[in-house]
Amino acid sequence: EQGVPVAQRVFKDNYLRPPFIQPYRCKRVLIEGVTIRNSPFWLINPVLSDDVIVRGVNCVSFGPNSDGCDPESCNRVLIENCLFDTGDDCIALKSGRNNDGRRLAMPIQNVVIQDCVMRAGHGGVVLGSEISGGARNIFARRCRMSSPDLQRGIRIKTNSVRGGLIENIAIRDIDIGEVKDAIVINFFYEEGDAGSHLPQVKDLHISHLTVHKAERAFLLRGFERAPISGVSLHHVEFKQAASVGVLENVAQIDQVDITFNGSALTL
Prior knowledge:
Layout: E1 27-32, E2 35-37, E3 50-55, E4 58-61, E5 75-80, E6 83-86, E7 91-93, H1 98-104, E8 108-114, E9 117-118, E10 125-128, E11 135-145, E12 152-157, E13 165-186, E14 200-221, E15 231-238, E16 241-248, E17 253-260, E18 263-264
Parallel strand pairs: 1-3, 2-4, 3-5, 4-6, 5-8, 6-9, 7-10, 8-11, 9-11, 10-12, 11-13, 12-13, 13-14, 14-15, 14-16, 15-17
Antiparallel strand pairs: 17-18
């Protein structure tokens, strides 16, 4: 944050918790058929890498920041047939934090997530919060999520310090058993509206999503000067939800066939 050149960012005594597996600037990465337990930090964190496959991996870790799989500023990523039972986000797509993310300007892009199971975690399929380089062309399908300890199903988190353009996101055929908040888009994550880099969401399509039990269906919080728009919800069913939740500074949602506790819902 102080603008120190990367080559000078050397700590004599380094006590930072490392990711468990971190392919860095790699090409053609395959991580398959392994189980990772009790990681000190994020479990799998490919960075600035191309053509990454994470397949048939069990991520079971409940320590601090124990995200399951966090591809960061990668291009062409496939995550499939994996199990996530974590103390933080199950899958979190990232592209750098604040000025470092904008300096590299490498979005996380062309990602397919399919046939995964999410249990405990802060979020199931997540974008952010380190998303300053942007995200585009993300496709998630046929995932099953459920746990009393699953805090959020679909989650986007950012703020005006991190910013980021999030565009062309398609999420479909998702079954959520039990969750606290089903769909979250939060521009007030951590610092909130404390910077000049306004986040933007464009062409986010969620379809054929079934939520069996939730405390809140939605937590959508945009800025008054940058409301949430570009979201479509088609064929979304909340079978048993305690409340619709929070919708704050939401400019536009394209809605088709949303049901809430057995009745049609118009947001």
